[in-house]
Design brief:
The complex is a heterodimer of chains A (188) and B (280).
Chain A: E1 21-28, E2 32-40, H1 41-51, E3 54-60, E4 65-67, E5 74-81, E6 88-101, E7 108-116, E8 119-120, E9 126-129, E10 133-142, E11 155-164, E12 166-170, E13 175-183
Antiparallel strand pairs in A: 1-2, 3-13, 4-12, 5-11, 6-10, 6-12, 6-13, 7-8, 7-9, 7-11
Chain B: E1 21-27, E2 33-39, H1 40-47, E3 53-54, E4 57-59, E5 64-66, E6 71-80, E7 84-98, E8 105-113, E9 116-117, E10 123-126, E11 130-143, E12 149-158, E13 160-164, E14 169-174, E15 191-193, E16 221-228, E17 231-232, E18 240-245, E19 250-254, H2 262-266, E20 274-278
Antiparallel strand pairs in B: 1-2, 2-15, 3-6, 4-14, 5-13, 6-12, 7-11, 7-13, 7-14, 8-9, 8-10, 8-12, 16-17, 16-20, 18-19
The chains are: A mainly beta (188), B mainly beta (280).
Amino acid sequence: MADGRKISDLDNTSLVTANDLMEISKEIEEEYLLTIKSVTVGEMSNAIELLSRLDYFTNSNTEPIGFYNGDIFRPAVQVSFTPVKDTQVNSWAEILLDTQFIEHSPEIKIYVAYVFDNMEMTRHPIQTWDIDGRHVLNLGFSTGPDELVAGETQHSLAIYLRAEGGNCFITPGDAIVTCQTIGKRLEE
Amino acid sequence: MATGIKISELDSANELQLTDKVELSQPLAGGGFLSKSATLEQLGAVFNQNAQLKFVIGVNGREISVGNSNVMVVRVQFDVVKDIDVDAWSEIKINTTFNEGSSRIVAYITYRHNGTEMSRIPIETWGNDGYHTLNLGYHIPMVEAAVGHRWEVFIRLEGGTGIVERNSATTVLTVLGSSSEQHWDGTIGYEIAVPEVSTSIETPTVIGNFNIDNTILDGMRFFYTANIPNYVTNIPISKIIEKMEHPYVTVYTLDYVLRCGEDFYDEGIDPLTSITGGGF
């Protein structure tokens, strides 16, 4: 802040710069400022901005779900969330499946589709098991740093499955999906 | 910071609450401070990101044999600085061997949090023996702060046995870097306060009593005067928020901040009861 500036001269264009050191202080009894820590304006602004974007959203299936051999994609689990600001979204899902081969089938294939905001993503993981029984399917999905989703808007991520070579079943609570909004790196 | 007190001067009487709003203040050359504000919780979350979670990784330090009874393959002890969700990620590499006559091995995973078994039990089935890798995730909701926690992963096998070699079972606990319960709205405003005023003894010319929203004649020098005998302050007009032109005078509406020292407030007297002004 240049010397000689008057308070009344300040406006939004005359704020301190990102490299200026600021003190975190608390006003006590309207007179004293309690200094807690010093950081630069840029550091603080970035930290607070980032902070505002961090959150968890998780959900699981509440009903038993069956996926039958050769059927179309059907939803296994979905989660809705409303981030505070534009953000990158990382998500992971763990689905516990009980598979049953159809007769003479040597394997079962599970095809996965991610449907984000009702739009099917291009990435389609496939898992093959050559033995039926109980299996664990772990999945990860990210919008990536360059594809931010809009803040203050409700979004949804649904995980669809379909089965070939057998049927598979999910009991309530066994399909879990979690979305994390992690913000983005801010420009100073 | 002329009026600030130092951290070293803090005692229990100065204890702050998470909901207290604090200001990020920058002294201004012209006097006063340029301020941003946030709650202590928000700021604490920012500065303590690395302290939210301690002891975040666990690895088996010895070889573990797994059979048809639960065997703990990894344990992580941790604590968090406030109640927060924790994700537990495990990767377990296990070398399995069929039991005689068996054609499949079924692995049952059990989690225990502070000794309490979780209801979620992932089960994996293998039709071949040999090395297998289990990738597992568990979301632990609202882990209590300020107490020690223990997260353990157990495994048992049906249809075969297994060996988890040293350093082959890992669990990593992660949290989001912050834990503020209230969302920051993303805006950072600023406000300007005059933290102190100089006092001087002058003999002002009283031109009348004024309320806070006052009309001031143009072209005169004014003093804000406390309604306390022998206590006169002389501060500049901090901000003119409205200016109205009239035929003979210019009327200003003032927005001012008056700080006169703790004695002033201790007496419980409203200082802004009159304004005096004088010529120059």
